[in-house]
């Protein structure tokens, strides 16, 4: 979860906003704007080493959702390397 929180924090214009959010809280409802969500998507893509598909982009709704996406992507990359 710390990686997901770190990527979200790096994407925010006002990173301290994340201090007030729980892992399940909606980023959009908390005031995270579209530009910040785009930055988040780019950070996640950089971390995963691949572009996100449309469904994955729509899933970037909370810190927990970002963590789940990162875990799924890490699992896929790990299985290819084995």
Please provide a written account of the structure.
The protein has helices at 2-11, 34-48, 54-58, 63-81. It is an all-alpha fold and 82 residues long. It contains four helices and no strands. The radius of gyration is 12 Å and the shape is globular. The longest helix has 19 residues, at 63-81.
Task: Summarize this entry quickly.
The protein has 4 helices and no strands. By secondary structure, the protein is mostly helical.
Instruction: Please state the CA-atom Rg, rounded to the nearest Å.
Output: 12 Å
> What multimeric state do the chains show?
single chain
Distance between the termini: 24 Å
Q: How would you state the average pLDDT, rounded?
A: 89
Number of strands: 0
Order of helices and strands: HHHH
Largest sheet: none
The assigned structural class equals mainly alpha
Beta percentage is: under 5%
Q: What is the overall silhouette?
A: globular
Number of helices: 4
Proportion of residues in helical segments: 55-70%
Poorly predicted residue ranges: 75-82
Main features:
82 residues; mainly alpha; disordered C terminus
List the helices and strands and how they pair.
Layout: H1 2-11, H2 34-48, H3 54-58, H4 63-81
Helix pairs in contact: 1-2, 1-4
């Amino acid at each position: 979860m710390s990686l997901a929180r770190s990527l979200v924090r790096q994407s925010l214009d006002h990173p301290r906003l994340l201090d007030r959010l729980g892992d399940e809280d909606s980023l959009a409802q908390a005031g995270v704007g579209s530009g910040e969500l785009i930055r988040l998507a780019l950070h996640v893509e950089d971390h995963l080493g691949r572009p996100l598909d449309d469904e994955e982009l729509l899933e970037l709704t909370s810190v927990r959702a970002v963590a789940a996406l990162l875990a799924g992507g890490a699992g896929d990359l790990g299985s290819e390397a084995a």
